[in-house]
Amino acid sequence: MIFPAIPRLGEAFGVSAGTAGQVVTAFGAGRMVILVPAGVLVDALGSRAVLLLGSTLALAGAVAVAASPVFWGVLVGQVLAGAGASLWTLGREAAGLEIVSPDRRGRLLSAFFGLQMAGNALGPVAAGLLVDRAGLGPTLWGSAGLAAAVWGLSAVAREELAAGLLRRDAGDFREAVRALPESYRAAFRIVTFSTFVLTLYRASLNTLLPLYVGTQLGYPGTVVGGLFGITSVVILAFILPAGVLLDRLGRKWGAVPACLVPAVAYVLMPFARTLSSLAILAALFGVAGGLSLGSMSALSYDVIPEHARGRLQALRRMVGEVGGMVGPFVAGLASDLLSPSAGFLLLSPLLLSAGFLLAFGVPETLPTAKAQAARRTEQPAGRRP
Length: 385
Hints:
Elements: H1 6-13, H2 17-20, H3 22-33, H4 35-45, H5 47-67, H6 71-99, H7 105-133, H8 136-155, H9 173-178, H10 185-216, H11 221-237, H12 239-248, H13 252-268, H14 275-292, H15 295-303, H16 309-337, H17 340-361, H18 369-377
């Protein structure tokens, strides 16, 4: 919620707009730095401890931002908030997987990511209204209040969630990789690569679409915002259908189109110049985003042993974070050296390669009823000390 308040932060602390904007960098840094330790903590301590630790850090960060008399204190608070968000997100998924059967995993993860996306879209809107009507202070303390509510929910987590056992090998990533079944190791590598590609694509789209539509074609900012709005609405409309698709037909029915649909849209984008054609492609980006909700996570959770979930998911997401940093750089460089439309064409082969690798290099991982029954009769070894 702090992002719409960035201009007010600059005024309140007497710093430039560029300096005030570093609250975004600070939040991202905290989220990324804690990602690998978060995976270790999930495997070592269990989901309940990580949920509580993450919400505690997020609350401490929000309070620090609201109460700090100096700007560097705001940055420290944002680092804490980002770290807390990363911990809580990974702990939330681990907690959900403990109480939901594998045949409902797609719906669970699709709902998780879809609602998170809705919050990311609506939060800044609410914060923008609040900062305009009530001012900076109430907005920042309102954010702290929301963090306190999340902390309260985490503190009273349902008793079904395992408290976790301290595992001495929980920090060993090589052990986690070796724990993957031999038949699924190549599949996990492909899913990790595809996560990198999809994250790069989403980050590049945020750069290329405004540059192409606003700069190259000359449309006003309202058109650019409207296209992003179309994409967001379509994604939100796919929250339930995408989850059902993943659980009924298979994980690849979401993962493969999530790569191939934007690859086609990226090829077509340089030829789209009218508002109607741009709107159609924006809707295709939304379809791809909706199908991707939870698909990569479901694929990887299906093959990762329970005791290594935290570490290997953190590893996969760290690779994705790298894609998120590379995407805007590559998109900006292509736009400067060639044109924004050329940037779409340059990145489309990467999406195509990820889609075909998922289609032909990864087996379907949706557990059958027989496999689920066999799994329920086995005592999970991952939680033994």
